[in-house]
Write a structure and sequence with these properties.
The structure is a homodimer of 294-residue chains. Chain A has 294 residues and is α/β, with parallel strands linked by helices. In chain A, 53% of the residues lie in helices and 13% in strands. Chain A has helices at 13-22, 37-42, 50-56, 67-75, 80-83, 98-109, 123-129, 140-150, 165-193, 198-205, 213-224, 233-250, 255-269, 280-288; strands at residues 4-7, 27-30, 45-46, 59-62, 89-92, 114-117, 120-121, 132-137, 154-161. In chain A, α12 runs antiparallel to α13 and α13 packs across α14 (280-288). The radius of gyration of chain A is 21 Å and the shape is elongated. The first copy, chain A, starts with a strand and ends in a 6-residue tail after the last helix. The model of chain A has no long low-confidence stretch (mean pLDDT 97).
């Protein structure tokens, strides 16, 4: 049974590492600050650096906030790369730049190690329930080696392609989710302003081509005005920033993603960083000087 | 059994009227030009004007291209209104302005008659197969009276609310469909430009919150490059024009609907008026100087 390293024990990482310990794995940890006491009690082996984690583990997972944090965790002088030896596998489960990911993978490969990018969706709830969706980029061999470990943390696990393809799939997911929220917002707001009952309009639309998971879940939130998260706007802002940065790097124009980000920015201006992302409709409502349900 | 009037026997109206004749109803017709021979052979009774249709029928259906055509069919001196008497029901199944609809309904109500707005989705295929989705606005009494007739033409039939609510639901439907197409287009194009396989990305996304009927159906069209209609861009341009006009009348800002219309306009500039609406992705591809599948 492989030894596992886990770097980054925040809101997502801590429950994920917990599932691996409960699954019988020996887990070596390193995080900003101390490893949570509950994990230590369960058997986590706290290390003094990423390099020490990498020396002890066969598979090293990173779960940190953004691209610079992954770069730091892997490549600072006391980072993971400093402790790697041939045949080990680095698995980055953070949501970061697909372009930077390809570069990180090359640098890890150059040390004789495999790299998987394996960002997740499902948030804190999915991390705790071990029901995360995991989108993976990398070699099939590495994927098959790590799959039993993924299965302790998630349910819908797909190898999409080579390195970077997991991250771009996550970005694509967040683009569609944001733009489908925006679409439902425009449609229900216009209908409500015209005097129709948005709940009945939503119901009628669910039978046809307008139907989506977002119309079902987030459309209901808009109608019932339940904007407690869920998934916080500030997290979706980070994801759309990744989308727009990647688009600029690759030379792709994403006009509606840009607008959706501006609408999130408008929500933030009204104190909404911690609102559920379905509250993007509030930015449209501010412009219309009218609220659904008014 | 009520006598039915049917005004407008185009690509949609002709098969719809045919279903009513096949259902055993006597159908009085009036259209631009001649009533199709097949309908006459089946028993349609061709009239010289909308007024003559209205004098003979209890329920008068209009199925014409746009708002001015409905206004003309109802209120020109030889139109439907001139032949109405108390207790008859006017049913507009065209897709037209929700704001104008409320005005038309008032003028028909003033003659002692009921009005239903009952636009459809499903297109020519749905009209022929009698599988249209029908979104209805008007009184419950009138709806219940006309329901057996709707059931000869469609399957998913909803009374959304009062007059205009059927039309605004259709507009809302077309907003969401256009913007979900745009969303899938941005996401798959970015993923493809990043080097991922768009077919695999689409497959991975279908398991989560990004899933939609549009990702399933139109996403597949984008990947397989099958842009024969389906639903023609020029028809969706008409629908988004209704959305944007209604938004301006009501004081609502629809930023992404506006962008989607511009992308359709760009497709038209490249000869794409008759492409399927999923080909909106081609406008994004022109901007990116890159095609999915390249």
């Amino acid at each position: 049974m492989a030894n596992i390293g886990f770097i980054g024990l925040g809101i997502m990482g801590a429950p994920m590492a917990g599932h691996l310990i409960n699954g019988g794995y020996t887990v070596y940890t390193f995080t900003h600050g101390e490893t949570p006491k509950a994990l230590i009690d369960a058997g986590a082996k706290q290390c003094a650096s990423g390099a020490e984690v990498a020396r002890n583990a066969d598979i090293i997972i990173t779960m940190v906030p953004d691209t610079p944090h992954v770069e730091d965790a892997l490549f600072n002088p006391e980072g993971v790369a400093a402790g790697l030896s041939k045949g080990k596998i680095v698995v980055d489960m953070s949501s970061i730049s697909p372009v930077a990911t390809k570069e990180f993978a090359k640098r890890i490969n150059a040390l004789g190690c495999e790299y998987l990018d394996a960002p997740v969706s499902g948030g804190e709830v999915g991390a705790k329930a071990a029901s995360l969706t995991i989108m993976v980029g990398g070699s099939e061999t590495a994927f098959n080696n790590v799959k039993p470990i993924f299965e302790l943390m998630g349910k819908n696990i797909t190898l999409v392609g080579g390195n970077g393809d997991g991250q771009i799939t996550k970005v694509a997911n967040q683009i569609i989710v944001a733009l489908n929220i925006e679409a439902v917002g425009e449609a229900l707001l216009l209908a409500a302003k015209a005097g129709a009952d948005p709940a009945k309009v939503r119901q009628a639309l669910m039978g046809g081509f307008a139907n989506s998971r977002i119309l079902e879940v987030h459309g209901e939130r808009m109608v019932k005005r339940t904007f407690d998260p869920g998934f916080r706007i500030e997290l979706h802002q980070k994801d759309l920033n990744l989308a727009l940065t990647t688009a600029r790097q690759l030379g792709v124009s994403l006009p509606n993603t840009a607008t959706a980000q501006e609408l999130f920015n408008a929500c933030a201006a009204h104190g909404g960083k911690a609102w559920d992302h379905s509250a993007m409709v509030r930015a449209l409502e501010k412009m219309a000087n009218f609220e659904i349900g008014q």
